[in-house]
Amino acid sequence: MFKFLKEVVSGSGSGLKDLPYNIGEPYASAWGSWVHYRGTSKDDGSPVSIFSLSGSSSQDRHLAAGRNGVKRLRTVRHPNILSFLHSTEVEGFDGPSQKHTIYIVTEPVMPLSEKLKELNLGGTQRDEYYAWGLHQIAKAVSFLNNDCKLVHGNVCVSSVVVTQTLDWKLHAFDVLSEFDANNEAANSPMLQFEWLVGAQYKPMELSKSEWAAIRKSPPWAIDAWGLGCLIYEIFSGLKLTKTEELRNTASIPKSLLPDYQRLLSSAPSRRMNPSKLIDNSEFFQNKLVETIQFMEILNLKDSVEKDSFFRKLPNIAEQLPREIVLKKLLPVLASSLEFGSAAAPALTVLLKMGAWLPPDQFNTKVLPTIVKLFASNDRAIRVSLLQHIDQFGDSLSSQIVDEQVFPHVATGFADTSAFLRELTLKSMLVLAPKLSQRTLSGSLLKYLSKLQVDEEPAIRTNTTILLGNIASYMNDGTRKRVLINAFTVRALRDTFPPARSAGILALTVTSSYYDMSEIATRILPNVAVLTIDPDSDVRTKAFQALDQFLSIARQNHEKLTTGVESNVGNSTGVQPNANSSLLSWAMSSLTQKGKASDHAPIVNANSSTVSSATSNSSLVTDVQSTAPVRTASMSSFEQVAPPSPTRSADGWGDAEDGSVPDLGDEDGGWDDVDPFEEPKPTSLTNIQAAQKRPVSQPKQPAVNSSRAPPATKSTIEAEDDPWGSVTAPVPKPAMKTLNPKPASSSSARNDDDLWGSIAAPAPKSTVKPLKPATVNDDSDPWAAIAAPPPTTRAKPLSSLGRGRGTKQSQPKLGAQRIDRTSSSGSSGF
């Protein structure tokens, strides 16, 4: 037979020309005269099963029964009946003789007898799986007998197949016929092809062909007997050879034995209805059956029942057969999650089951469902995905992450829930290595720029840690633009001590990416300030960082001295495990919570307000904090707290640009900030300029100290002379800067000029007042509006555009008074 089929399919190489499937190797067993082959689809290569039946002529009675089976299988649909896909009948030749062959294509299945040998289950796990299989076959038989009024006629091991999900399905419909109960007196055969049934499977009335008694019996009488035969064969592991073997009940479970005996009752009317076997049998009440039944009707359950079920499922799955869990429960669970019927706790169970799969099967059975779940709007599902991303992140390809996963995950950066923002940030440790440079530099860094000024201090800390960890995935230009600004301008100035520690650690771990000029001018000044930080951990890390960067500078100096060109990036001396230690620190600090206003102050290296360096000056900063803060005790100075970063501030301390970087900015929100201020002219410049001018006594008298407002300590500190230690001592200096910010016009006039006694006045010729000078004479009340004398040079009236400055002053003044008097008098009437 197999040789004949090979000749038939030889025309297309791997299958019939009119059959869109390829025929593979046959199984060892099949029902009746059929041959069961493995097969694949020619379109997509998906697996199928192909059944073939051959006869010498088209009138062969086996082919007639086969055509009945094809017709019945095509029309009868049920979840526990084999799914029909395609059928065809062809003619061929086996040597000189002609052959007719029927082909049926179904879903991929395997004979039950072979599958049971492959599973090789035992004990409780075997009984639970057999109970589930018998439950499915009993449902199929009940559907045929009670709902369709059909009689299968030959229920046995050979007529049952197993799907890829380990479901049992009924097939072999060649004998299937309608139950003719209306013609009770007729002696004609009700089952046209009952001769195909083996004698060992026939009940007494069928073997004697008592058709009248069969028609008087219930519709399930014959198939109930067949169910008893099936139970005996699967539990004994032997193929039934004669009817007397059914009396051997040693292998039948005790909980199933009463039902087994009722199925094999000698009286057809007393045989058990398969529907009652499903509902009442104690044997079917086990964990596997109950679990699968619950998942099949998951849509009908409420949220409380779902949550309770999925929380218990991990422990139940541990007790069930591993292969049944992976091939049956896992696909059902994945489908429930994908279509929204399962709750968020089901994802934890899915990942636990998926961990038992080989990597290739995990990528095909579990990963597609997970990728689809990232598009879910259910916040609980999103949280669960981010919490367990380390379990499946390595299996995601770079293309899937960049195109399908990251766009959905990125919405969590702006979520109102701080917990979800933090989880989104943590997930980037897994996803960032798989992102393209365009996504990394164009999208991710902009989100991180926002998070570095987040209101949650733990999120700001982790953002710094993340930047240090993903620095190796950035290109050189992005690193130059982002890292130093992010670590020094933001992290080192944060009011949260762990955030400052994170900035120091990030700088040390990424030290290989900075050149010597950046280390000397931008990193060392900012780190040195933290050596007087109130927090001892920050101070310790600052000293360690200084040692490392000074070592780099020292190596650079030695190389320059010896004439060897230095490559500072290769001589940083960074420890190989520095990156891993930074990562573990980030994970342990995620639990720290707090608000931006609840943390200790820091010193800004580039702040415009610098603490006084004099020995007698000190400042005290009031910090409201609910958490204990370690304050450093200093004899000469204390530290000034910068403004706390908020959602509307950029978190860069006293940097010039105080706006939050726009998410649409092409520069990522970092390179628009210059961490260094322009050097302000020192008071030494004023002194040198004053010494070059001729000394003269000032015309203005000394300012009355009683009218001048006292200089505040912050004003003294902001205007202090950084070179005061090398200049001549001046009693109580309160020098003005070149460009002071006038608080008010009165305070600007009353400021003391400490260098006025030795400075020459500005030449009159070079100073041209913007407004005409006025003379304040208390004795002349009209002086304010009177014209100036003729000899004056200022010509204020001409400057006002009146054009009468050359006239005699007396007539003009008299005329003005007369005119005003007359005009005022006339206006009175």
TrEMBL record:
| Alphabetized Pfam families for the sequence | PK_Tyr_Ser-Thr
* Alphabetical list of PROSITE patterns matching this protein: HEAT_REPEAT, PROTEIN_KINASE_DOM
Q: Where are the HEAT repeats?
A: 366-404
Query: Where in the sequence does UniProt note compositional bias of the Low complexity kind?
Result: 781-796
Renumbered to this chain, region (Disordered) spans 630-829
Signal peptide interval: none
Q: What is this protein identified as?
A: N-terminal kinase-like protein
